[in-house]
Amino acid sequence: MQVQFVCLLLGLLSAVELCASLDFYQKHVIGNMLEYECATVMQTRQINGRNGGCKKINTFLLDTGVRVRNTCARGDGTHNVGFNVVVCRRVVTSSHPNCRYTGRRHDNRIVPIKCKHGVPVHLASVQIG
């Protein structure tokens, strides 16, 4: 009975981590995008802030996901890796449901990715000069 419980618990933990990883990819990884596409991508991917409002800022890694996976294959913890990114910032005068964003591309920006059990779960704040 204890073995079954442990297996169930491990399965649930794996499911939670998988959901966190899928959420990470949905919010932060995109193969390619242009700066002016922020509003469209944020809306299409349903990326919102707390309480369903406009998210103030979101960073997209311009990557297929392979480098992200390889980064997390190095082990748990936070890893700093250089990525080309598009940072989308909410236009202050916009509000939900008509969120507007301005985007800015930054090449080879150091991005702190938090990995847990071999998958990405959080993108820490990206320092933009």
UniProtKB/TrEMBL annotation:
Q: Which PROSITE patterns match?
A: RNASE_PANCREATIC (PS00127)
Per the UniProt entry, the signal peptide is 1-21
Is-annotated flag, keyword Manganese?
no
Cite the Pfam families for this sequence. Answer: RnaseA
Annotated GO biological processes are: defense response to Gram-positive bacterium
Question: Keywords assigned by UniProt?
Answer: Endonuclease, Hydrolase, Nuclease, Signal
Under SMART domains, the record lists: RNAse_Pc
**Domain spans labelled Ribonuclease A-domain:** 17-127
State the InterPro entries in the record: RNaseA (IPR001427), RNaseA-like_dom_sf (IPR036816), RNaseA_AS (IPR023411), RNaseA_domain (IPR023412)
Q: Which GO-annotated molecular functions does the record name?
A: endonuclease activity; hydrolase activity; nucleic acid binding; RNA nuclease activity
The UniProt entry's sequence similarity note says: Belongs to the pancreatic ribonuclease family.
Descriptive protein name: Ribonuclease A-domain domain-containing protein
